[in-house]
Amino acid sequence: MIVDFHTHIFPPEVIARRQDFAEREPAFALIYGNPRARMVDAESLVQAMDEEGVDKAVTFGFPWADAGLCREANAYLQDAGARHADRLIPFYTPSLTGGKQAVRGAVLALEEGMRGIGEVAFYTSGMGEEQWSYLLSLGEAARASGVPLLLHTNESVGHNYPGKTDMRLRDLWRFVEQAGELTLVLAHWGGGLFFYELMKSVAKRVENLYYDTAASPFLYDPRVYRIAVDILGPERILFGTDFPLIRPSRYRREMMEGGLSADAQRRILGQNACRLLQL
User: Fold this and answer.
1) Into how many domains does the chain fold?
2) How does pLDDT run across 6-58, given as a tens digit for each residue?
3) Would you say 41 and 11 are in contact if contact means Cβ atoms under 8 Å apart?
4) Domain carrying residue 124
5) Residue 222 maps to which CATH number?
6) How many CB atoms lie under 10 A from the CB of residue 217?
7) Whole-structure pTM value
8) Helix, strand or coil for residue 63?
9) 186 - beta bridge partners?
């Protein structure tokens, strides 16, 4: 089974009226204000999965600042998960503005059957103390329900791109330490945090920490797969595409170019996700 652990879908109305929504939401404008930025609805995602040989996909919406938009977007995710129950695994996507209301929404959504929380992202605010406190509250909701939380991360060096925030790895590591028994997935290779698992003090605290491969072709040389497996082993790496940003076939090609064994590819492409989500 092949499981894409990182995809995004939008209600058709949002896709059709993207400029209207971009004028209302600065973070959305940052990522999707450009008409060339790809957006898809649930049906288009499932069609692409059929074309690419992907069996199941974890899917998110967008972390709207507007509470009403956030509720509508998550309702769409729930509906999509019900209509494509054998294919789509919806995660609750919380508002980037935080607050008790957002945490209550997450708790309710998990009680109603959503399978995780994510992609949690702070595209415009950065990650100060207020954001970390909010993130810890979301993490507690996920831990109490026995589901993963997926967090947007990015590198602190290299080129700039839409959605890249000012993120310090020492702050990210502090959250990992505070998260305790929470199953945490760091998107985009954790902004490079996995390299630091070569440190003995870091390697002691990573039992419930996973990394996804989303956007890897735009960020890293294909050798990253082999290097990551050498450091982590293949058991804590999750195949994620950030679809519709990049199609799955490009990742699979780079895994082969990177020199991964067939067993490592099987684990990353689906076995790890099946174990994590109890599929």
Assistant:
1) 1
2) 999 999 999 999 999 999 999 999 999 999 999 999 999 999 999 999 999 99
3) yes
4) 3-277
5) 3.20.20.140
6) 19
7) 0.96
8) coil
9) 151, 211
